[in-house]
Design goal:
alpha+beta; TolA/TonB C-terminal domain; four-stranded mixed beta sheet; two-stranded antiparallel sheet; 4 helices; 8 strands; 51% helix; 17% strand
């Protein structure tokens, strides 16, 4: 029974140590690991037990054969008795040797099992943390209503509902060209304005554009079916 126990332990450890490591998932997503092949521990233990038992029996057989040959050639009964006792002692020595080897193998197998289990637990913690981090990043990157997106990510182009130019005094002949950005909110209203360039320069144009933008209206920007915000760059020529 002791031999069977250690064989089973050694078989399990050998399988855990030597089995191929699964391919790690790509960093962008948490991939499911392929199913590991099932090992028949009982069958492995039986095969190893049979092999070790055969080796042990072979040693005993060789030893007894040598002693029996010597005993058969001795006529003196006392010498036969002594040699038979010596043979039995040798058999007992081989038995103790086998028991000690089994005990040592059990200790080593237990140590190896503990080591493998600790390494597997560490690897599991690392994989769990990696999966949690990937899930956190994915959640942060997931689009939510009210997020600001690129105008190229809209489901359909924005439509201008109302965008009258500002009324500005002292417009030079030929008009004024204004380049600006507007942040269009989820309801199509302008929330922010950034004037990038006024040509030719005209004092107060930033304020005029900001005031005029309060009356501008666009269709609600939509991305992936959700209402979002979007920055739009425009150029407007204001004339007299």
């Amino acid at each position: 029974m002791a031999v069977a126990a250690v064989i089973a332990l050694i078989a399990v450890v050998a399988y855990m140590v030597l089995k191929p490591k699964p391919t790690p998932p790509p960093p962008q997503a948490v991939a499911s690991q392929p199913a590991q092949p099932q090992v028949d521990v009982a069958k492995l233990a039986q095969e190893l037990e049979q092999k070790m038992s055969a080796q042990y029996e072979e040693k005993v057989k060789d030893m007894e054969s040598k002693y029996n040959e010597q005993i058969s050639q001795i006529k003196d009964e006392e010498k036969k008795r002594l040699l038979t006792e010596e043979k039995n002692k040798e058999k007992e020595r081989l038995k103790r040797q086998q028991e000690e080897a089994t005990k040592k193998a059990i200790q080593e197998a237990n140590q190896q099992i503990v080591f493998v289990q600790e390494e597997q637990a560490k690897a599991k913690v690392v994989e769990q943390k990696k999966a949690e981090e990937q899930a956190r990043v994915a959640a942060e990157q997931a689009l939510k209503e009210g997020d600001t997106v690129s105008i190229n990510d809209l489901d359909f182009p924005l439509k201008t509902i109302s965008q009258a130019p500002p009324r500005v005094a002292n417009i030079p002949t030929g008009g004024v060209s204004v380049t600006f950005q507007i942040l269009i909110g989820v309801q199509g209203k302008v929330e922010k304005v950034k004037v990038l360039k006024v040509s030719p320069p005209l004092p107060g144009m930033d304020k005029n554009i900001e005031l005029a933008s309060q009356r501008w209206e666009f269709s609600s920007p939509v991305s992936k079916g959700m209402k979002v915000k979007v920055w739009k760059t425009q150029n407007m020529v204001i004339r007299r």
